């Protein structure tokens, strides 16, 4: 039998783009190619970093706050960052 | 007495930390702006003297890290490693210290000693962040200078600290970041494999780390330097540890956390800052657009209401006056000399000169918006539209600069990280109607369309932008395979504008425009004058007329006579030349004369098609030269010219035929 890869939901992970405005999450990993991983991790998107959603209208780019910096991300880029919701937040 | 000594100091820092302000404070006006060799990345150098030491300052490009993600990062690190400056001053934003220290974590393993310029401490204090520079200094083992560069605070201490570091013989021993424990063994394994095979001036430990970070440049370097079997072993290790990029980055952030723990006290609950309040509106998908439209409208109205009268003043009192002066002085002299001086040289220089007011005002407005931090928001709001063309928000600023002049627009595409994004933006920039085209529009529309003139003018601007959007979508699909680069952009804090920074920005942009456009326009004006006078001395039988007559059949499709075609061709030198050429071709003494003649010669349909072609036509020669320079490719430059020829004539024919049908 093939080993089962746990789904995001089983791991309690969501995509950064799904985080609602004002909510905070913890970066789990970035599922992307080397270039994007490198650029994002330099800006502070490293495992265990706290990231807060500043603006998210459900379409178009989002603004997040990470390590005292506000960063605009395309929706596609935000979908590649997996995060854990911080306890007690939706 | 101390001997006269020369040292070199490199300024490093992430974008938006006030690095240019520090550079400007240190060097004043004794700075030189050029390009890094072989790159279209701006290089600023300057000097100052202190205590008998001449200090050369090199402003490195603003970069978030020293991994080869972009040309800027490559330049910055190559400079430090290969040119080995005596001191590196790392400018950081105290209000975002963690992220800013990332670059410092990359600078410390390099040989040049680092001084930390802790800038914007006022902003940090406003946000309730308390920093103890002495504690930070002790933790990092390097000098820390607190600064507020915009208020000229700390600059003297920075100069003293640089001085001490150079005079002081004691060894420079900073605390250097180390890799995360789980990857230490791998790092050592790589080090053992490549030791003694790393070319000068690189260090084994640094190269090993960059290999683990998947740095393309260093991978290529080592692939060339290592024997094949060893490279294969190294490569196998790297493939097995692809997660090392993240491990190295988080290792640096962990180190930063440890270094700043004692020196940094943050406010408990995040308070709502001014930036947050402003951004609720400025980045809103609807209100953000309204605000952007309002700001742009304001920029335009200021540019034209203040700039246009100044332009007229310069034109009558400087250009025409000097033309009169020259012709008076040359009475009795050879006619060709008068022609060369007045039509060729004064005409060319005058063209450039009369654009100074409009360009200065436009550049100053842009500089103000950039310095205050608004431009990033404009890019953010426009991202969803740029998206349709396979571009992202960062392409908006250069395109917008195009409303002033296409030359700085094309140069401004440097901020776009991906080559294809930059190329596509360069291809689209000429479709942004520049001030020169607006001048033609403003002159011709009232002659034919009376009260509807402003409507027609705005319609034509709208048409240009629609064509730009359609071309963007098509080019992206056909020529670039529909890919899209990642959109990642810092939104800096808003701040009070610094007039010095804006002033220097305007100065540099204008200077580079005049250097490039000025010479090209001057030379081409003389060439054009030659074509219009040779071989017979009369324009009707000149080479220029022959070219126009050759193009007459094409012109007929658009309702344009050969004279109109010639006028169009001369707009290649500078857009507003088409009015001057019409003046000469129709023997009108001055513009007022032309204004009376034109409506009798052209039907409104033909005038409309002339304007359409004029708006979409190949850009002026200065822009084409800049496009070639920035795209660094003949293929793309020629493609753009051919594309615009087809588009403009196609649109002209369509508009004329339809307008003629309707009447």
| Major beta sheet, strand line-up of chain A | 1-6-2-3-4-5
Task: Choose one word for the global shape of chain B.
Answer: elongated
Order of neighbouring strands in the sheet with most strands of chain B: 2-3-4-1-5-6-8
CATH superfamily of chain A: Ferrous iron transport protein A (FeoA)
Described by the principal axes of the CA atoms, the overall outline of chain A is: globular
Quickly count the domains of chain A: 1
Order of helices and strands of chain A: HEEHEEEHE
The share of residues in helices of chain B is: 55-70%
Radius of gyration of chain A, CA atoms, in whole angstroms: 13 Å
Largest sheet of chain B: 7 strands, mixed
**Proportion of residues in β-strands of chain A:** 25-35%
Q: What ranges of chain B have pLDDT less than 50 throughout 5 or more consecutive residues?
A: none
Domains of chain B (count): 4
Q: What share of the residues of chain B does DSSP label as strand, in percent? A: 5-15%
Task: Describe the protein in words.
The complex is a heterodimer of chains A (90) and B (663). Chain A is of the alpha+beta class. Chain A has one domain: SH3 type barrels (Roll), CATH 2.30.30.90. In chain A, 19% of the residues lie in helices and 34% in strands. In chain A, strands 1-6-2-3-4-5 form a six-stranded antiparallel sheet. In chain A, a hairpin with a 6-residue loop joins β3 and β4. The mean pLDDT of chain A is 88. Chain B has four domains: 163 residues, P-loop containing nucleotide triphosphate hydrolases (Rossmann fold), CATH 3.40.50; 85 residues, Helix Hairpins; 186 residues, no CATH class; 136 residues, no CATH class. The radius of gyration of chain B is 29 Å and the shape is elongated. The chains are: A alpha+beta (90), B alpha/beta (663). β5 of chain A pairs antiparallel with β10 of chain B.
